[in-house]
Amino acid sequence: MKNLSKITFILFAFTLLFTACSKSDDDNSLTKDKKLVSIVFPPGSQGKQMVANYRYDDQGRLIEIVQENPYLVTFTFTYMLDGRVEKIKVLKDFFDQKYIDYTFFYESESKIPNRIRYSGAVPTYTADVVNIDNTLFWNNEDGDEFVLEGVNTTNNTFQRLVAGGVTFTPHFNTQLKNGLAAQAVLNIPFAMLQGYEGIIVYFGLQLNSQPIIRLETSDGELYNWQYETDAVGYITKTPGGIEYRYQ
């Protein structure tokens, strides 16, 4: 199936990110909400340690994810005055440093975009989004249809995503914490990115506000992720040595 082997490989590669070891914390951290500020990867074959820093504005909204060694802005988030997501800029090509801008348009005060504009490393075009009984339908430039089912506009979550003829069903654990609880506004826009990039980012980098414990696909694939946490449920470190740091 189109690109399925690609997403299967990437999802498998990211499984090292999804199991965290417990870590003690100070007393103050037991009573306050924390924000994810960086993910630190252990040194690779060339001895370099890669760090992905999460940056926020003065309202606590995630605005950038920046990679160190080498320095690269991988994601940029822009918001409307009322807090809705206006644009997500994604690094499309790591080597050529090409980006795609996803700009979202809304009708009146709706939380659900009714149009997406794609520009940057692709020919600029727009796709209309149709909302029928909380199921969203839209297409990319190749005519591939994407469907987001069971959309909940109260907490910006959804139940299933259909792309390339495959249905992806995530299962969340609301007791786990990844320091992104305040970023729920990003959930639906992230899942609406073009092609498989949105799926890979959404599941692979855990940018959704609720950590995923299981992902099922309609073609029989099943991914399970078990987490060990600190005393209050924050993911801290993976068996592969990847650290999650908060403030």
Q: How many β-strand stretches?
A: 16
- Rough shape? globular
Radius of gyration: 18 Å
The CA-CA distance between the termini, in Å, is 42 Å
Question: How is this structure best described in words?
Answer:
A hairpin with a 4-residue loop joins β3 and β4 (72-79). The protein is built from 3 helices and 16 strands. The chain is mostly beta strands. Mean pLDDT is 83; it is low at 1-27. A 9-stranded antiparallel beta sheet has the order 8-7-6-5-4-3-2-1-16, with no helix packed on it. Helices cover 9% and strands 36% of the residues.
Annotation keywords:
7-stranded antiparallel beta sheet; mainly beta; 3 helices; single chain; 247 residues; disordered N terminus; globular
Topology:
Layout: H1 4-13, E1 36-40, E2 51-56, E3 62-67, E4 72-79, E5 85-93, E6 98-105, E7 115-120, E8 125-128, E9 130-132, E10 135-139, E11 145-149, E12 160-163, E13 166-172, H2 187-191, H3 197-204, E14 212-217, E15 222-224, E16 243-246
Antiparallel strand pairs: 1-2, 1-16, 2-3, 3-4, 4-5, 5-6, 6-7, 7-8, 9-10, 10-11, 11-12, 12-13, 13-14, 14-15
Short description:
The protein has 247 residues and is mainly β. 9% of the residues lie in helices and 36% in strands.
